[in-house]
Amino acid sequence: MSTKKPKSSSLEKLLNQISGRWTMYILWILDNNGSLRFGELGREVAGISTKVLTERLRKLEAMGVVYRDYKATIPPEVTYGLTERGQELSRTLDPLCELASRWYDSP
Amino acid sequence: MSTKKPKSSSLEKLLNQISGRWTMYILWILDNNGSLRFGELGREVAGISTKVLTERLRKLEAMGVVYRDYKATIPPEVTYGLTERGQELSRTLDPLCELASRWYDSP
């Protein structure tokens, strides 16, 4: 790891933010499907409750990793997608994803 | 992130293993200092208790990321270091470390 001393254990902070249950899976779905409406996202992330999905999306939005687009149509249309920062995080996680898959997914 | 569907959310499992408090810092210290004795490691990871350091090292050992070398000298000598797997994890985390530092460490 970089020799620069992690001043404020920023890596620990980032890991804590993204290690919650479902978080990686939501990022993965948005990365592979582009922006999705709340209902679509809920169906893609099989098994997640509306409450938890709402919480995770709010957290990801607060991180600046996911954007929320609201259209005042009738009924209103709300879509979620990865911001540039979210796409950067996704790309950066790719090698870790490969490593985890090699280590933990039975062939 | 890789388009391969994360079969068993292996990435989530790995993130949960490495996101505990101090874990990244211990890996970072061993990566930068090579193998260390328990006491040396405890001093380097300022603020960690002996109990927590013991727990974290056991967990990292169980993951196959850290090795524990015991020499039956008098007094016995116990050193810890990164295994090949640990070094691979460290290298893979480098880009995430840089990203976290850019995002969260004030310049």
From TrEMBL, chains A, B:
Pfam families: HxlR. Keywords: DNA-binding, Transcription, Transcription regulation. It comes from the Bacteria. It comes from Hyella patelloides LEGE 07179. Coiled coil: none annotated. InterPro entries: HTH_HxlR, WH-like_DNA-bd_sf, WH_DNA-bd_sf. This is HxlR family transcriptional regulator. Gene3D superfamilies: Winged helix-like DNA-binding domain superfamily/Winged helix DNA-binding domain. Residues 5-107 form the HTH hxlR-type domain. The lineage of its organism: Bacteria, Bacillati, Cyanobacteriota, Cyanophyceae, Pleurocapsales. GO terms for molecular function: DNA binding. PANTHER family: TRANSCRIPTIONAL REGULATOR, MARR FAMILY.
